[in-house]
Amino acid sequence: MTGDSDQKTTLYQWIGGMEPAGRLVEAFYANMDTLPEARDLRAIHPPDLTETKRVLTLYLAQWMGGPGDYSAERGHPRLRARHMGFSVGEAERDAWLLCMKRALDETIPDPRGRQAILGALAPLADWMRNQQPAG
Ligand code: HEM
């Protein structure tokens, strides 16, 4: 192989690495702190989000094809299992995705990058649901 033309650019590279990932997570939790739609979602998170922010940044960096620090620290993500302790229905899923969509709009200048990330996170957030819709 002489070049990297056949290597895919990861989302992690696309957004510019760990620093933009950290800004995205800061904006995500700032939205969770302020959006009325996210009040209940915020309430089930710890008051101090320092550690939560650090862990979500590592997770998203790894999920976007960046360094594997999350798994080095915490093992296989088992993300659905890790959320079993929380009630995740459509409302929680939608609130989570709303905070993330706004955060992407605020921190990722490239609309294709934003769309690629949100488009891949949406089914992941839906898969996290452990409550059936009412009715
Ligand atoms: C694509 C969607 C989601 C992703 C990628 C995601 C990711 C994560 C990650 C990586 C963690 C840390 C897990 C660990 O300790 O290793 C976490 C924790 C958590 N997640 Fe999610 N999550 C998602 C959706 C949701 C939803 C819909 C809810 C709503 C109930 C939720 C509520 C929580 C809570 C309450 C914590 C614990 C925070 C803490 O104790 O610090 N998550 N999530």
From TrEMBL:
Q: Which Pfam families match?
A: Bac_globin
Q: Which keywords fit this entry according to its UniProt record?
A: Heme, Iron, Metal-binding, Transport
Q: Which GO terms describe its molecular function?
A: heme binding; metal ion binding; oxygen binding; oxygen carrier activity
* Gene3D superfamilies cross-referenced by the UniProt entry: Globins
Q: State the superkingdom.
A: Bacteria
Protein family: Belongs to the truncated hemoglobin family. Group II subfamily.
Query: Under which name does UniProt file this protein?
Result: Globin
Which species is this record about?
Nitrospirillum viridazoti CBAmc
